[in-house]
Amino acid sequence: MAKHGIEYTPDARDPRRVRLYDGLPRGVSRAEVTFRAEGGFRGSRVVPASAADFAHLRTAPETGYEGPWSEPSRITVSEGQYYVRQAVRRIAERAAEIERRVARIDLDCPWCERPRSYLGRIGFLTGHTGFMTDAPSELGQLVDQQHAYRCDDCGSLLHFADGFLPHPLPGRKKP
Ligand SMILES: [Zn+2]
Questions:
Q1: pTM score > 0.85 for this model?
Q2: How far, in Å, is the centroid of ligand 1 from the Cα of 158?
Q3: What domain of life is recorded for the organism (predicted)?
């Protein structure tokens, strides 16, 4: 299970280390900013940001697997703090965008004028036909998860692909 969000060590107020799993630039799956001072066994040691002389940034590319870390690059303390703030801002913007989208979705059945109820996740089996046949090929079948809402009066269904919005949706607020 991939990690999410931002991990501050020991806390967000004056961190020594920040690991980011979210809000990153395109193509980056995780990043780490460590705040450092000169000295110590490896030439630098990790210290609270308030006491740091510089910072290290390392990233891992989005490969679908747990890719290796890049070599750390040396940046200034304020560049390190800016990198973290940018991620916080991107996460907040995305949450606000999702909220706007969710608020626009009307779950009401247009014919019965009542809200559809949430049935939960339903797996749609999808696939391709096999070689020289109309029957589905065993390979290439996929279960496509859908969130389903049903009108309990007429049975009409509304589906949303999984992975876009948090479900169940609240439905559009009536004025
Ligand atoms: Zn209906």
A1: no
A2: 11
A3: Bacteria
Ligand 1 centroid to Cα of residue 153, in Å, is 5
Q: How many domains does the chain have?
A: 2
- Residues 125, 107: Cα–Cα separation, whole Å: 24
Q: Which residue range(s) make up the domain with 98?
A: 6-104
- 104, 138, 167 — which closes off a domain? 104
How far does the centroid of ligand 1 lie from the alpha carbon of residue 108, in Å?
8
Residue 115 Cα to ligand 1 midpoint, Å, equals 8
- Please report, for residues 1, 29, 89, 147, the alpha-carbon distance to residue 166 in angstroms, rounded to integers and kept in the order given: 18, 21, 20, 10
d(CA 129, CA 44): 60
- Report yes or no on 72 lying in a domain: yes
The predicted model gives 82-96 an average pLDDT of 96
Token output for 76 = 């200034």
For ligand 1, the distance from its centroid to the CA atom of residue 148, given in whole angstroms, is 14
Domain end call among 81, 104, 127: 104
